[in-house]
Design a protein that fits this description.
heterodimer, A: 120 residues, mainly beta, 4-stranded antiparallel sheet, B: 110 residues, 6-stranded mixed sheet, 3-stranded antiparallel sheet, 9 strands, globular
Chain lengths: 120, 110
């Protein structure tokens, strides 16, 4: 059974730093591109970042480019999102998502999400 | 960056059919496959249609997708109470080099 388990969310001050992690299991992690998708309170889904199977290619939505970094460790089946200089508008549930293959492919499995709240 | 247009809401009675539209442009829907996601409030999204009209295993054949030019549609037949959820379309955008989602359509089964 495919499982994605996010961790690392919490309360962070504006301008601060946060690192999200996602542990994958039940599938061959290095065979699939991975992504982070977020959802602000009461709002719709917003793609944040994607990473290729080997980690060599990364893609970001414009609002986080230069502030967020996506990375993966295929030896440990983990995905991470490092968030720098966070802003109030980064407040959201962050979902880790597995794609159906190489990027860009749709997201067939999602984690339960981790809540990030940016506030002073 | 919700660049895909969806109606904010839709409603229909049980047993009936409903269609949700998704409008984009050349750089996203016309050029790339469309996927659809179902999200029951308080839970994670679920992929229900990919590659315009393919269903993942476990998704009932009451759900179907179609695409023509810069628009796509999700049709749900034989509506059931458990179909009440938010539905999002999505596609890769070649100009933005990223995924774009629709704003979401809240489906109410009356």
């Amino acid at each position: 059974e495919v499982q994605l388990l996010e961790s690392g969310g919490g309360l962070v001050q504006p301008g601060g730093y946060l690192r999200l992690s996602c542990a994958g299991s039940g599938f061959n992690f290095n065979t699939y591109a991975m992504a982070w998708v977020r959802q602000a309170p009461g709002k719709g889904l917003e793609w944040v970042a994607s990473i290729s199977r080997d980690g060599d290619s990364t893609y970001f939505t414009r609002s986080v480019e230069g502030r967020f970094t996506i990375a993966r460790d295929n030896s440990k089946s983990t995905l991470s999102l490092v968030m720098l200089y966070v802003r109030a508008e980064d407040t959201a549930i962050y979902y880790c998502a597995k794609t159906t293959g190489a990027s860009p492919r749709p997201f067939d499995y999602w984690g339960q999400g981790t809540l990030v709240t940016v506030s002073s | 960056q919700s660049v895909l247009t969806q109606p904010p809401s839709a409603s229909e009675t049980p047993g009936q059919s409903v269609t949700i539209s998704c409008s984009g442009k050349r750089s996203n829907i016309r050029s790339n496959p469309v996927s659809w996601y179902q999200q029951v409030p308080g839970t994670a999204p679920r992929l229900i249609i990919y590659d315009d009209n393919e269903r993942p295993s476990g998704v009932p054949d009451r759900f179907s997708g179609s695409k023509s030019g810069t628009s796509a549609s999700l049709a749900i037949s034989g509506l059931q109470s458990e179909d009440e959820a938010d539905y999002y379309c999505a596609a890769w955008d070649d100009d933005l080099h990223g995924w774009v989602f629709g704003v979401g359509t809240r489906l109410t089964v009356l």
